[in-house]
Amino acid sequence: MNRLAVALAPLILAAGAVSAQAQDPHAGHTMPAASPRTQPAPQDPHAGHVMPPAQTPPAADPHAGHAAPAQPATVDPHAGHAMSTPAPAQADPHAGHAMSTMSMGPPDVPTSADNPGRPPETPVPAAALSGPAHAADRVFGAEAMAASRRTLVRENGDVRTTAVIIDRLEAGFGDDSETWLWDVQGWSGGDINRFWWKSEGEGDFDGGLEGAELQALYSRAVTPFWDVQTGVRQDFRPDGEDTTHLVLGLQGLAPHWWEIDAAAFLSTEGDLTARVEAEYDQRITQRWILQPRLEIDASAADIPELEIGSGLSSVEAGLRLRYEFRKEFAPYVGVEWSHAFGDTADYIEARGDEADDIRFVVGLKAWF
Q1: What is the pLDDT of residue 345?
Q2: Which of 308, 207, 198 is nearest to 262 (CA)?
Q3: What's CA 175's distance to the chain center, in Å?
Q4: Which residues contact 134 (CB under 8 A, 6 or more apart)?
């Protein structure tokens, strides 16, 4: 028995060696000395393999070892790949789409209430119209709310105002005479209906009053910028030849901010005359204002007692520069040219005056 054990011992040792080699495939291989930083063999399956030196850490460049151009791999991760057909730009998701027929505005949908393409509208319930016209009447009472509504109308469209405008209060200095005049008007009423009055007069410092007029008018707003005026005009003359006229006029603001006052006058003697005045305020600064002014008079027939000829009788054109110490108080200086035409010029020259005149004027414009 001992002899058999001694004879089988070499075979048993050889079988154990073979079993050990099956458990460790690298048993007996010569392994390089491990660096202190190298991970243990079970964690690195490539331990002992010859690896080319890495340019960048493997985690940073998944293509390490591929043939790539000189540009660093981190700059172009696709270096060395075939990219002959570039992908569409991501900045424009609709690149290459045909959009010629697309509309950028809202769809062309009918909006008329009677268009059958619109959804049907539910009629107003009958209960919604069964109560009072003003729901607040149930809470505060109809009488109290009626008074409140009258106050609202008065404060937001029926306000009563009164104003007096001194358009011209001036003295004129010409070659032959020194004159003075006034041109004043005012109103009292609301925005739609007003009582309007106007007064003009002129005279000579040496000879006194030459003539004056006073108008009393009913004015009604027919558009936001125009009033129709009608009433009477009374003329006063030193010789006692007073005359009464019926007046029909139009006053308002024309385009480009021209203030227009036009009227036709029919006297009790049957004389028909007309007058148009136009003014424009050209603001130079907040206080300095240049005002051109034009006045045209015409008559349908000769009026010898008033020294007025038929047709275009006279024209006055002036230029005034005023300074507004306040909006309500503005003195001015200027120059005015006047010219008479036709028979009117003959009447003026017959009494020894000039039909053409230039005057330097100084005056005051105010309102309150």
Answers
A1: 94
A2: 198
A3: 51
A4: 142, 145, 149
Residue written as tokens 């009604």? Answer: 220
Two tokens, residue 179: 């004159």
What contacts 158, CB < 8 A, 6 or more positions away?
190, 191
Angstrom distance (rounded) from CA 144 to CA 96 = 71
Round to whole Å and give the CA distance between 221 and 229: 9
Phi–psi pair at 60, nearest 5 degrees: -80, -25
Task: Please say whether the dihedral angle defined by the alpha carbons of residues 10, 11, 15 and 21, taken in this order, is positive or negative.
Answer: positive
Average pLDDT over residues 359-363: 97
Backbone angles phi, psi at 205, to 5 degrees: -65, -25
Can you give the pTM of this predicted structure? 0.61
Q: Is 363 exposed, middle or buried (0-12, 13-18, 19+ CB in 10 A)?
A: buried
Residue 174: name the closest of 367, 366, 353 by CA. 353
Beta strands in 156-270 (DSSP E): 161-173, 178-189, 193-204, 208-223, 226-236, 243-254, 258-267
**Contact residues for 201 (Cβ-Cβ < 8 A; gap 6+):** 181, 182, 209, 211, 212, 213, 236
Count of CA atoms in the C-beta half-sphere (13 A) of 309: 15
Characterize 122-159 residue by residue with b for buried, 16 or more Cβ atoms within 10 angstroms of its Cβ, and e for exposed: eeeeeeeeeeeeeeeeeeeeeeebeeeeeeeeeeeeee
Average pLDDT for the chain? 79
CA 6 to chain centre: 120
* Pair of tokens at residue 102: 């697309």
Position 34 scores a pLDDT of 43
Read off the pLDDT of residues 290-340 as tens digits, 9 standing for 90 and up: 999 999 999 999 999 889 999 999 999 999 999 999 999 999 999 999 999
Query: Among 171, 218, 215, which Cα is nearest to 197's?
Result: 215
